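Q: My hope is that you can spare some time for a protein that puzzles me. Underneath my words sits a plain record pairing an amino acid chain with its backbone structure tokens. Those tokens are not coordinates but codes from a learned vocabulary of shapes. Thank you; the sequence and its tokens follow:
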Amino acid sequence: MSKHAFLLLSPPENPGKIANPLEYAVQLDEAGHDVVVWFDGGSTFWFENLADRPAPALDAYESAKERDLIAGVCNHCASHKGVIEDVEAEGFEITGENHQPDVDALVDDGYELHIV
């Protein structure tokens, strides 16, 4: 099986760019592939007013979260965008202001990067 890392960068104003990659991640996981998802850049705003997100995108997020596919949220971006409390309320830890994920380490570990 293959390894896939989805790096979400799109802001939540375009929910399809959040929902679709999350759906693809779930499909790959269901098929037995190794999958991780990172919220980075503008996608860190996803956690602000989470309950107000459109149902299809929110459902895709919940499915990916339930399957433990979400590896994390960029510390630097969450800090810079002022959404630390919203991110932590979803159970993700912000530990400083370092940029994440380490794409070099992901590639070294054999992950194919999908940047959306």
User: Anything to note?
Assistant: The chain has a mean pLDDT of 96. Residues 11 and 45 are 6 Å apart (CA to CA).
